[in-house]
Amino acid sequence: MDEIRVKNLEVFCHHGVYKEENVLGQKFLVNIVSKVDTRAAGKTDELELSVSYGDICRCVKKEMTKQNDKLLERVAERLAECILLQFPLIKEVEIEVKKPWAPVLMHVDYTSVKIKRSWHKVYIGVGSNLGEREEYMKLAKEKVSALPDTKNFKSASIIETEPYGYTEQGKFLNTVYSIETLDTPAEFLDKLHQIENEAERKREIHWGPRTLDLDILLYDDLVTEDEEITIPHPELTKRLFVLEPLCELAPRGIHPLERRRYSDILEDLKEKEK
């Protein structure tokens, strides 16, 4: 990915733990590396196909001076979020916030915090088979599409399916969403659980009936070993009601572990279940 760089942007503002820092203020230097595909702009010389480094600088200055923070970590996080939300063409940003006048009572050139943040593509499995199924599916779509720090929400078609695993229950409505988020998997899963709670989801029987079920199926090409969040979802390749809507959104998508297209996995599963 191409890069647009800003080096040592100087901003005078008020951040720090000590009272004097918040009263007197001090100089900060900011380095920004924005990952952007600049090929179209390079071929056409059209500004709207790239990102103005002047606009990036003005965004950073405005964000740094609008409030006082104690930690450079907080400043850097706000700057990364601001840039990614304001400039849709930027896929990833690296921010370094330098503090040349750090009050450490020793000589240092500067102290700094450097972070890297980016958009992440997430696929979400959605299901409901209890109560007003259509209303719960409508609630899920409204809430997930409106989550903060997200963009490019898409929904596959809703299908009705037989229950999986625990079969003594009603039919499900199922679909898959895709969305881009700035959240980590844990942060995003927490937001999904909050939506399930709004739908009064009860976890009483494994694979049992539920008003609303929201599962992270995929998060970029991430493969986790986390006990709380297993990505890719371990049942993804075994479920027609997941693969069918997933293939609608990502017809040429490739499973990060099996290295096979979801469409091929779907066709094999259909053959097995004939």
Description:
There is one protein chain. This protein is an alpha+beta fold and 274 residues long. The protein folds into two domains: 2-118, GTP cyclohydrolase I, C-terminal domain/NADPH-dependent 7-cyano-7-deazaguanine reductase, N-terminal domain (GTP Cyclohydrolase I, domain 2, 2-Layer Sandwich), CATH 3.30.1130.10; 120-272, 7,8-Dihydro-6-hydroxymethylpterin-pyrophosphokinase HPPK (Alpha-Beta Plaits), CATH 3.30.70. The chain contains eight helices and nine strands. It has helices at residues 19-24, 39-44, 53-65, 72-86, 133-145, 185-198, 240-249, 262-272, and strands at residues 2-13, 26-36, 92-99, 111-118, 120-128, 150-155, 159-161, 172-181, 213-219. The strands form two sheets. Strands 5, 6, 7, 8 and 9 form a five-stranded antiparallel β-sheet that branches. Strands 1-2-3-4 form a four-stranded antiparallel β-sheet. Helix 3 packs across helix 4 and helix 7 packs antiparallel against helix 8.
- Using the CA coordinates, give the radius of gyration: 23 Å
Q: Do you know the CATH architecture of the largest domain? A: 2-Layer Sandwich
Structural shape = elongated
Distance between the termini: 45 Å
Number of helices: 8
Approximately how much helix is present in the residues?
25-40%
Top CATH class of the largest domain: Alpha Beta
**Total beta strand runs:** 9
In the predicted model, the low-confidence regions spanning at least 5 consecutive residues are: none
Given the helix and strand composition, which structural class is it?
alpha+beta
**How many independent structural domains?**
2
